């Protein structure tokens, strides 16, 4: 029996046709009672960018993705323990953190924020990854 559940597996060849990549990845991994969610951006699961030039709108879409992935893994937003947020410009901090804060009101995760020179696609202004847990009372293992 596998020790990890991989959620929304994909290959970068199809996901990023503009790049010469061929990597097998997934959007989230459930390992025991821990859920690791891959960095989420302002792109929906059909590959459509939401919020071109709008960091807050991209953060909203990223959090929609996070919520959906956590639910698919058997967790939820209230079980997030850590977030890491990447911004390509420090001026995006307020709109992005305000949007993320709406989704995580009352959760109190630990948080790391970074300003980076670029993300994997030039239209992405922000990215967020999370680690969450599944309480023992919800565990199926």
From TrEMBL:
Keyword list, A-Z: Hydrolase
Q: Which Pfam families match?
A: Ribonuc_L-PSP
Q: Which SUPFAM superfamilies match?
A: YjgF-like
CDD domains, alphabetized: YjgF_YER057c_UK114_family
Organism this protein belongs to: Tatumella terrea
Main EC class of this protein?
A: hydrolase
Entry EC number(s): 3.5.-.-
Q: What is this protein called?
A: RidA family protein
UniProt-recorded Gene Ontology molecular function terms: hydrolase activity
InterPro entries cross-referenced by the UniProt entry: RutC-like_sf, YjgF/YER057c/UK114
Q: Which family does it belong to?
A: Belongs to the RutC family.
């Amino acid at each position: 029996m596998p020790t990890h559940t991989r959620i929304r597996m994909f290959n970068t060849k199809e996901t990023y046709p503009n790049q010469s990549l061929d990597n097998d990845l997934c959007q989230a991994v459930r390992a025991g009672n821990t859920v690791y969610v891959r960095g989420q951006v302002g792109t929906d699961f059909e590959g459509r960018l939401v919020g071109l030039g709008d960091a807050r709108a991209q953060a909203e879409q990223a959090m929609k993705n996070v919520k959906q992935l956590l639910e698919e893994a058997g967790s939820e937003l209230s079980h997030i323990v850590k977030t890491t947020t990447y911004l390509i410009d420090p001026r995006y901090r307020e709109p992005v953190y305000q949007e993320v804060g709406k989704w995580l009101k009352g959760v109190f995760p630990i948080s790391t924020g970074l300003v980076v020179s670029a993300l994997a696609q030039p239209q992405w202004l922000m990215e967020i990854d999370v680690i969450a847990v599944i309480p023992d009372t919800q565990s199926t293992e």
